[in-house]
Design goal:
The protein is of the alpha/beta class and about 400 residues long. The chain has two domains: about 1-165 and about 285-390, Aminopeptidase (3-Layer(aba) Sandwich); about 170-280, Alpha-Beta Plaits, CATH 3.30.70. The protein contains 13 helices and twelve strands. The protein has a six-stranded mixed beta sheet. It has a four-stranded antiparallel beta sheet with strand order 8-9-7-10. It has a two-stranded parallel ribbon with strand order 6-12. The radius of gyration is 23 Å and the shape is elongated.
């Protein structure tokens, strides 16, 4: 116990010593926002920082140009800190991924002393495109998390929360193809693709009151027609369909698709569609064994953890990882409770003093949790027992 306490104190001291350079790295990512799969600068900066601190870095990990895997140490246990660093189109780092990527990187670096003394392997895995593109889903399908004993990250938010609930989510791309005609001279000669889309979205509006609590259906029309005086021959839309459990999402997707089939049937248009099965987000299965270890380390820093609220606020591809191995996705407060994420206001907090302190505290709590796992094999044994019970013995 004394050894573990000393290792944690050393890790905290190192992170305090590195505070200025870590804040600078976070702000650099924040001021150069890059959207999904375009995070060339952010991934390079994080990989270079890890390389400079003794990690062996594999770039283009899982065949993704902006993914990487950095490794320090050898042998069991295999503990991973996952880094996110993509930004939102038009908003930038309104989700605070500059903090996630930097905190996970910092935690990995701070665990080196424990690895040198206790053995084991620490990974920092750069996972691009969390925002609606499912980078981790692709990486999971390609074996990017095979062989790990656990995975964790900390997400900035408006509260300190240990257990995160997330909705299963899948993307739907639809297209209606009709026939163009002059809208005034010969509208009867056309087949109106916009009418088909309006029928479909009207049906979706009616469907929403007939779905389970927690389910969400939302989307935008990306092509509403080509000219105001021409019957639209093509329209297109992009949607997300979400549900509280993975099984209900399967049922819901068929009902959503029926709305678009109705639009095609009513107008005579051809319907084309594509489900994003390769980038489907699964529900988040928080491993409570790991969560309680993290809670203890976060509270030791003076952070008050909010009571659990079994409500899903969004979706994350960390859910896909949590169905493969024990994982946690806690949040740390960087903004007041009335400031929602994915906003310009939250973006400013992600670069504020409160954001900087959250970055350091997140790194400290992650590193301390990693040290606990390196020092006590029984924790991971319990985490895996819990995981197998929840996954039906798999």
């Amino acid at each position: 116990m004394a050894q573990v306490t000393e290792l944690k104190e050393r890790a905290e001291a190192e992170l305090e010593q590195r505070r200025e350079e870590l804040v600078e790295l976070s702000l650099r990512i924040h001021s150069h926002p890059e959207v999904a799969f375009q995070e060339y600068q952010a991934s390079r900066w994080l990989a270079e920082y890890l390389e400079a601190n003794g990690f062996k870095v594999e770039r283009n990990f899982c065949g993704l140009e902006t993914a990487f895997r950095a490794v320090y140490g050898s042998g069991s246990p295999h503990i991973a800190f996952l880094a996110e660093y993509d930004a939102l189109p038009g908003i930038g780092h309104g989700c605070g991924h500059n903090i996630i990527g930097t905190a996970s990187t910092a935690a990995g670096v701070a665990c080196r002393g424990a690895v040198d003394l206790l053995g084991g392997t620490v990974y920092v895995i750069g996972t691009p495109a969390e925002e609606a593109a499912g980078g981790k889903a692709l990486m999971a399908a390609r074996g990017g998390f095979d062989g790990l004993d656990c995975a964790m990250l900390v997400h900035p938010a408006s509260r300190n929360v240990v257990v995160t609930y997330a909705l299963a989510c899948i993307e739907l791309e639809v297209e209606f193809l009709g026939k163009a005609a002059h809208a005034a001279a010969a509208p009867e000669a056309g087949i109106n693709a916009l009418d088909a889309m309006i029928v479909a979205f009207s049906a979706l509006g009616l469907l929403r009151q007939q779905v389970r609590d927690g389910a969400r259906i939302h989307g935008i029309i990306t092509d509403g027609g080509q000219a105001v005086n021409v019957i639209p021959h093509r329209t297109a839309a992009s949607l997300l369909v979400r549900a509280l459990d993975d099984a209900y999402l399967e049922a819901l997707r068929e009902r959503v698709l029926a709305c678009f089939r109705a639009g095609a049937e009513a107008t005579g248009c051809e319907l084309r569609f594509r489900w994003g099965d390769d980038r489907r987000y699964m529900t988040m299965c928080t491993n409570m064994t790991l969560a309680e270890v993290f809670r203890s380390n976060l509270e030791a820093l003076g952070r008050q953890v909010s009571p659990e609220e079994p409500r899903a606020f969004g979706s994350t591809d960390m859910g896909n990882v949590s169905h493969l191995l024990p994982a946690i996705h806690p949040t740390i407060a960087v903004a007041p409770s009335d400031v929602p994420i994915h906003t310009e206001a939250f973006r400013e907090f992600a670069a504020s003093e409160a954001g900087h302190q959250a970055l350091i505290d997140a790194a400290k709590a992650l590193a301390a949790t990693g040290i606990d796992l390196l020092a006590d094999p029984s924790i991971l044994a319990r985490a895996w027992e819990e995981f197998r019970l929840r996954s039906g013995g798999r």
